[in-house]
């Protein structure tokens, strides 16, 4: 590895450590959630945060906006929200001389960090309004394509599907999220720290560490980070092991998985393992990074068969089982 690349990676690792420290002062005790969210931003992708209300998902996104120096907007998704409420619309405006012309009023999607709060409370039609923006970083309104400001990231929060008044996200949109992040209840010690930190007269204030240009430079640097052949082979082995029609799929996968992850999942793993290595202060990803990122990258890109759902099977557990059987030596062979 060239010396200048090593120096750039080490400098970025120091900056990431500072950003993580600034975030965890306000979002207490959920280091795994913070790491995965930062990984999504480093990879230039979007993240889906799943958890019950009141677990700090909104607070996390607001803090990220400040620390990463991004222009952020928040949209509260509701059943009556329309696509134009997100994208914007054209209105007929009358000038002082009496002439009329259409004027475009941009919606909240024209930002750098969009928080789509409770995204599964909106109708599928409104959810799909984000598809083009998430994939192409542009939107088409009134026949005109408008480019979004870069970098552009969507951090969506979602309530569990079992709650009333929610709509499951379509598979095509789920695949656009780089990672799914499960936000769980804090343990007792963490909850005590949260109580003491948030119910006094003063709260920790986040400070800016990155800016848009620095973040985009970090995203470019991440793609220059070398990945060993053993890690590449493990990524391929892992993704293909979850496709029921692939010869490498186990009987367990063929019996429980209706469809598996596509090539976009392998691309996501290739990026996120680099991000995890950066966040842990290493110069290159390892097979352990692949195992660690498998669940957040793959779980929302797969579906159970009807019989597996009836038996109460869990995709996360199946991913963990398959990862446990895949040894680094097999991939390197």
UniProtKB/TrEMBL annotation:
InterPro entries: ATPase_AAA-3, CbbQ/NirQ/NorQ/GpvN, ChlI/MoxR_AAA_lid, P-loop_NTPase. Keywords: ATP-binding, Nucleotide-binding. SUPFAM superfamilies: P-loop containing nucleoside triphosphate hydrolases. It holds the Pfam family AAA_lid_2. CDD domains: AAA (cd00009). Residues 251-321 form the ChlI/MoxR AAA lid domain. One of its GO terms (molecular function) is ATP binding. Residues 46-179 form the ATPase AAA-3 domain. Belongs to the MoxR family. This is MoxR-like ATPase. It comes from Alloyangia pacifica.
């Amino acid at each position: 590895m060239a010396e200048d690349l090593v120096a750039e990676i080490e400098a970025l690792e120091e900056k990431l450590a500072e950003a993580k420290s600034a975030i965890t002062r306000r979002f207490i005790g959920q280091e795994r959630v913070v790491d995965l969210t930062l990984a999504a931003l480093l990879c230039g992708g979007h993240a889906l945060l799943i958890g019950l209300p009141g677990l700090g998902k909104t607070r996390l996104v607001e803090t990220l906006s400040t620390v990463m120096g991004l222009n952020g907007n928040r949209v509260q998704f509701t059943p009556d929200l329309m696509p134009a409420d997100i994208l914007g619309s054209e209105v007929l405006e009358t000038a002082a001389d009496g002439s009329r012309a259409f004027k475009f009023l941009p919606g909240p999607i024209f930002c750098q960090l969009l928080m789509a709060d409770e995204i599964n409370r909106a109708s599928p039609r409104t959810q799909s309004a984000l598809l083009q923006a998430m994939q192409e970083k542009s939107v088409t309104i009134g026949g005109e394509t408008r480019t979004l400001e870069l970098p552009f990231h969507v951090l969506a929060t979602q309530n569990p599907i079992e709650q009333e008044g929610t709509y499951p996200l379509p598979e095509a949109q789920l695949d656009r999220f780089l990672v799914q992040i499960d936000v769980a209840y804090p343990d007792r010690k963490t909850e005590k720290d949260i109580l003491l930190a948030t119910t006094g007269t003063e709260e920790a204030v986040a400070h800016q560490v990155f800016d848009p240009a620095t973040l985009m430079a970090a995203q470019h640097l991440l793609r220059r980070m070398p990945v060993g052949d053993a890690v590449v082979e493990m990524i391929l082995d892992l993704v293909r092991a979850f496709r029921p029609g692939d010869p490498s799929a186990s009987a367990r996968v063929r019996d429980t998985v209706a469809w598996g992850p596509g090539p976009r999942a392998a691309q996501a793993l290739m990026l996120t393992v680099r991000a995890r290595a950066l966040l842990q202060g290493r110069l290159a990803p390892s097979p352990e990074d692949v195992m660690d990122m498998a669940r957040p990258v793959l779980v929302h890109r797969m579906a159970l068969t009807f019989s597996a759902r009836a038996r109460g099977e869990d995709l996360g557990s199946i991913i963990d089982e398959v990862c446990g059987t895949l040894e680094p030596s097999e991939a390197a062979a």
